[in-house]
Design brief:
Blueprint: E1 14-16, E2 27-28, H1 37-50, E3 59-62, E4 66-69, H2 71-79, E5 84-89, H3 96-102, H4 108-117, H5 121-132, H6 138-145, H7 153-160, H8 169-180, H9 193-196, H10 199-210, H11 216-225, H12 236-249
Parallel strand pairs: 2-4, 3-5
Antiparallel strand pairs: 1-5, 3-4
């Protein structure tokens, strides 16, 4: 089906145009996971606005036209009549499990950089916020920009697909300024930088901010004057309990 001389996986990336004879003829093997329609729909929405990104994430295809990896990308590209990129692998190649368990998947900053280079303002703002507030983890920053109190699967997927909302930057700065003001605050003992950077601590703070009865002023007062256990804790739920204990101590002048 494809004119290649090597059956083993190669580094050659082929571009398939809508005008090519075999453009819409790729097939899915029986052992492929079922197509997830919600994921395919979000990919389609993203690619309709930003174009195909299979140039950096090519579809793995056998020489006889079966998809080994990338059926969601293929489905979205063809439905939009976009060109897509493929790498040819052997028809009996069984390295998909090894590939998925050992390849270096993109992290949050990789995705942010990709969409920022495509000119999407929300991701340009994301990178600027990460630079201005280096202590915040990418996952927590995604949650803040979605006005969430925790990281959610659907927002993580949307972030990877280029669908980060771009209207909460001012809100994000207000939240991050509050968290930034806690760095090394406290005397008994000071909040360690390693604790301040913990995802669990940051997410616990987001949960507290969502509580209408929570007083950040009282919390800071309590943290500055009383003992706390944040540096000894690892779980988010324990961090949140400690936040409320410290806040209570801050009610006393």
């Amino acid at each position: 089906m494809f004119n290649t001389s090597k059956s083993r996986i190669t580094n050659t990336i082929y571009k398939v145009e809508p005008t090519d004879k075999n453009y819409a003829d790729l097939k899915t093997e029986d052992d492929q996971r079922d197509l997830k329609l919600d994921h395919a729909s979000k990919l389609k929405e993203s690619m309709s606005r930003n174009g195909s990104f299979t140039d950096v994430n090519p579809i793995l295809v056998t020489s006889n036209g079966f998809i080994k990896e990338g059926q969601h990308l293929y489905n979205a590209a063809v439905s939009l009549n976009l060109a897509y990129h493929i790498i040819i692998v052997d028809k009996d190649w069984d390295g998909i499990i090894i590939l998925n368990t050992n390849k270096r998947n993109w992290n949050g900053m990789d995705f942010a950089g990709h969409w920022a280079r495509k000119g999407i303002q929300a991701y340009i703002d994301f990178l600027r916020l990460k630079e201005d507030y280096p202590f915040v983890t990418p996952g927590v920053l995604v949650a803040i920009l979605n006005r969430d109190s925790c990281r959610k699967q659907e927002t993580r997927i949307a972030f990877k697909d280029g669908l980060l909302p771009g209207y909460n930057v001012l809100y994000a700065r207000q939240i991050l300024d509050k968290i930034a003001s806690l760095q090394e605050l406290g005397k008994e003992p000071p909040l360690k930088p390693s604790t301040h950077k913990k995802q669990q601590f940051q997410q616990a703070m987001l949960q507290a901010f969502k509580n209408p009865k929570f007083s950040f002023v009282k919390f800071k007062r309590g943290l500055a004057k009383s003992r706390h256990k944040f540096n000894l804790l690892a779980k988010q739920e324990d961090m949140l309990k400690e936040i409320y204990k410290v806040e209570k101590k801050g009610t006393k002048e």
